[in-house]
Amino acid sequence: MSYTGARPTDVADPDPRFPFPHRPTPPRCQAEPILFDFANGDRSEDRQATEKRLEKARRACSDCPIVRDCLRWALVNKPLTKTGVFAATTPSQRTILRKRLADRLGPDWIDVLARQDQTRREQAAAARHTPPTVDQARILRLDREVNGPMPLHRLVTPEQQERNRTRLLAGLTAA
Ligand code: SF4
Asked: pTM higher than 0.70 for the full model?
């Protein structure tokens, strides 16, 4: 089973610049949504019961591997997160965090975050396409001379990884 979407909402579309973080299995808030169903001033249960439920939700979030990106998503998508616990925060706590972001980054803080993300993505892509250093190029050339062209595999099995490692070591030895 794979979970790729945000928690179900029917209020508005999420900001496409900030996709909900992916995780292979549904987060606890999907499996047990009632725990996270919290609104400020909720009077449907006594205060103690609400606090207990909130504490459970917070603990679940603190164990969630996508908590950091979930918080970002919740802060950016205010119309979708007016109620409920997201990333261990209540609606009023998110309001405070949004204000802090606006103080720090300006009133267009969402656009600023989106631009920062874009810059990071471009830098990562550029790093992936950085040409090899002279030494790396020499090793690759020698590897080709010693071992011939390396076949391209879409999915590399552990055996293929081992073979590739051996080939590279052979190239290094030859260098
Ligand atoms: S951090 Fe909490 S609210 Fe966010 S996905 Fe995980 S369990 Fe759900």
From this structure: no
